[in-house]
Write a structure and sequence with these properties.
Radius of gyration: 19 Å
Number of strands: 13
Largest sheet: 4 strands, antiparallel
Structural class: alpha+beta
Mean pLDDT: 85
Distance between the termini: 42 Å
Shape: globular
Number of helices: 9
Strand order of the largest sheet: 8-11-10-9
Low-confidence stretches: 40-47, 299-314
Length: 314
């Protein structure tokens, strides 16, 4: 029996559906393209998992509202771009609805998990205003999310970087192309951003952005636009460092596996070698090996999901 309560989005008293914080199709894709079908959690890396975090937050009506934009994102952008990232993909109003729904859910998750410990009154007010602004847009009470913008960065393998290999974590291509991650980031300058990473996409939701002009060609527009590989994307340098730090943390998680689990992973890897070769996971690993050599092999096997307890400041 489903629990009954107040829908966190629309406020209706209703049976509450079990909602994914990050959409379920992303985890299905990760399993199906891994070559072995397994995932490991960043909070418990010695244990396999099959899905992401879920919460009883939404009434049926709001769950359907989110599902519609997720289906549009998956079929019109996620799968086409993952299959072929060489050309532009056009989008309609569904993309902003999807992005806001993800940022709003991740914000709810960290409000629950963190209780926003250490946030001063101004920061708490900023979070509350972003929460309401995203709600108003999702429920059709506002035509756009205002200053609480959504910025989407399509990712791929790093084939060239002026920073050089020494800067990057040796699993950076696997992180950029494959991994799932989420965070509520608060900088010393007062910035507060919701960070969502799924497959080849990084989504940033502005809660409070002090220098929005530093973001160029990444904003998701209300009605239409296009997503394409560009060298003209521009984000603050702190974001680049932050993403690299998250990749490093993912590598540390895999390195922390027990000897017993490492042996199990090695055995499973050898058993499914034929399926692994040619998989998307294999492709991402190839890029890391070509760039970093033996340093890419911290651990073989399943991708890890960075722990939500391992937050880093921008």
């Amino acid at each position: 029996m489903l629990p009954r309560g107040q829908c966190r989005l629309c406020g209706a008293d209703s049976e509450l559906q079990e909602s994914h914080v990050l959409p379920a199709f992303i985890y299905r894709w990760l399993r199906e393209t891994s070559g072995n079908g397994h995932l490991r959690s960043g909070q418990m890396p010695n244990k396999r998992v099959q899905d992401g975090h879920k919460r009883h937050w939404l009434c049926t009506r709001c769950e359907i509202l989110f599902s519609d934009s997720e289906t549009a994102f998956a079929s019109n952008l996620f799968y086409p771009y993952t299959k072929d990232s060489t050309g532009p993909v056009t989008y309609g109003p569904w993309l902003l609805r999807f992005c806001v729904s993800v940022s709003w859910r991740v914000l709810q998750f960290f409000k629950d998990e963190m209780s926003l410990k250490g946030y001063d009154a101004d920061a708490l007010e900023a979070v509350a205003k972003a929460d309401e602004g995203w709600k108003d847009f999702l429920l059709g009470r506002s035509p756009h999310p205002g200053r609480f913008e959504q910025h989407l960065l399509p990712m791929g393998a790093i084939e060239y970087s002026s920073a050089g290999p020494a800067f990057w974590s040796p699993n950076i291509n696997r992180y950029l192309m494959r991994m799932i991650d989420k965070d509520l980031c608060r900088g010393s300058d007062g910035n507060i951003l919701v960070y969502s990473k799924f497959g080849r996409f990084v989504l940033i939701g502005f809660v409070r952005e002090i220098r929005p002009n530093e973001w160029r060609r990444t904003k998701v527009h209300v009605r239409k636009g296009s997503i394409e590989p560009r060298t003209e994307y521009h984000v603050p340098a702190a974001i680049v460092h932050y993403i690299n730090d998250r990749a490093k943390r993912a590598a540390e998680i895999m390195a922390s596996l027990s000897a017993r689990q490492s042996e199990k992973i090695d055995a499973a890897f050898k058993k499914s070698l034929d399926e692994f070769v040619g998989s998307d996971e294999f492709l991402a690993m190839q890029y890391d090996v070509e760039t970093f050599g033996d340093a890419a092999f911290t651990r073989k096997g399943q991708p890890a999901l960075p722990s939500d307890d391992d937050r880093m400041n921008l």
